[in-house]
Structures are given as C-alpha cells and as structure tokens.
Predict the 3D structure of the following.
Amino acid sequence: MNSYSIGIDLGGTNLRIAAYSAGLEFLHTILLPTRLHDGWQAVLGDMAGAIRQMMERYSPVYELAGVAVGSPGPLELPAGRLLNPPNLIGWDGLELRTELENLLGQPVMVENDANAATLAEFQLGQGKIYDVDSLCMLTLGTGAGNGIVLEGKLLHGMNGMAGEGGQITIYPDGPLCGCGNHGCLEMYASATAVVRMARERMDAANAPGLTALAAARPGFSARDLHSLARTNDADALAVFEEMGRALGIGLAALVNTLNLPLYVVGGGLAEAWDVFAPWLFEELRHRSYVFRLTDADAEQVPTTGGRTRVVPAALGPDAGLLGACLLPLQNAQWKSSRKISVETTSDQ
Ligand SMILES: [Zn+2]
C-alpha cells in the first residue's frame, strides 16, 4: 500500500492543505483564507476540517504516514509553541501542535515554514540536483526566512530556533525590523523591503519610472518592480542593487560561518535573480574569503575539496507546502534511499 501524508502551509493570508504521496506527488490541495480576525480557534478548526476531508478521501486507499504543519515563527520546537509571531497577531503562546492534536485525535508535527521549504529544496530541488548532504536556504518573501540542512538533518538548535539568517544585522542604523533589531537582512532582502526601498527612493529623488509605476499601480509589488528593472529603469535597478548587496553581505556571514557546498535563494523575490545576483556575488567575493577560496564558478581555486555554489531555488512557491508533506514521509522514504539519518521534530 502506498503511503501518503498531509501537509499544511499556515500563512498569514492563506491556509493551504495538501495530500501528498511520494510516488504520485500532490494528490489534492485545498486553499482557504486564514481567518485571523475570527481568532486562532476558527483557523485551527478550518485546518482540522480540511485534514479530516483529506483523510476521509485517501485513508481508505493509502496508508497515512502523518500530518505536518509549516508555521511562521518565532516557534519553539519540538513543542510547536508560537512565541508572539508578527504575522499571526493574537497567537502568542499558542500550543499549536497540542491544540491541533487535540482537535484531530492524532499526532501532528510542527515545523518552521522556512525549514519546511528548505527540506523540500534539499530533497527535491537544488539539493537533489547537486547531490549534496548539506545546504543553507534563504526564503525571500514577505520576510526573509532561513533554513539549514546539515549532513542530512534540518538544524534545529536547542529551542528549534536555529537558522534565523534573515535577522542578521546588515546595517546597524537601518530601519526598525519586526524582530526588534535595526537593519536586519529582512529589511533589505524581502518583497516587503524592495517595495519600501522603491517608495523611499521616489520620495527622496526624481525617479520617473517608479513614479509612473506608482501612478499606474498604487499598490505595486516586488514583481512589478522586477518588470520595471528589466526595462533597464535606473531607479528600479538601483533598488535591486541595494537588495543584492545586502543579500551578499548576509550570505558572506553565512558562508564564513558554515562552509557548506550549497546556498539557495528562494521565495517569490528569487524570481528577480537576474537583476540582483551580480551585486550579491560582488559583495560575497569581496567579503568572504571562504567563498573566494572555494567559488564553484571560479576557473581555479587553491582548495582541492568541494566548491561553494550559490543558486536560485529550483522549486517554486509550493516549496513550503511540499516540505510539510515531506516531513512525515522522510523517515520511511528518503532515509533508506540516501542512507543519511533524518530526525524530525516529532520523534525527539
Ligand atoms: Zn529583524
């Protein structure tokens, strides 16, 4: 009997629930609005309802390997306790894992959403393409998430809070971040940040391209800015230069610290790789000797072992949902295929 899993991507706007089978991929997905204004009880009720719907449909045909939720943080793991999450107002202290287990009457895994996306990219995206046992991923969306896989295992740290590279300080006097610090990577390398930087540029200087964009689309997005940059608009390109440089500075800290074979840039903003990547690499080469000595794109390096690669993600916006689906399956499926032990947050 094929096994299947149920994964949930809990977002501040949408709730996505999927049934997934390793051989068959997504069996079914349900998209619901996240009813934050109705309270967490309503949102967890919606989640449980969709999960039961999936179980009624697939449990007679396949064996259920488990249920996992990818949630925004801060989050204490493996307990699955939310700690004042900025995108889930009113959920401070919520025992997400326990509450959902009580509703469903069965075990649930809870994982940080960026970790879930990193796991998917590791197993089925760039990690698989380059056949590495370790990688570090940054997911650049509304915020800047981070996940680290070390020798086949997601790195959780002592409280489940490892991999918060989005909160690395880039410029100490930069704008105030939701985490309480100033000038975090997230304040320059996220979809929210590039829109803010474009507006600041419009206010500070004559920026005809940005002004025309804002007139045509008052609520313009990072994707709109990327389209404008691709027409060689100097101001849109300058925004992506600032973003790329900040990302390069942040990655230099990660490369110097971790010395891993692969760094992946994912999330919606990674689509603008063509316009920000040259600045990212300029900063990275300048600031990280570990990178210069191991750069996979350099013709010659003095080191004889592995090389360092920095690449855009291979998986699209479903990476987080896919990662949640992979969590319950990974012990059974992947452990045997790649002979590397994988611990999940639920079996600790
Ligand atoms: Zn921060």
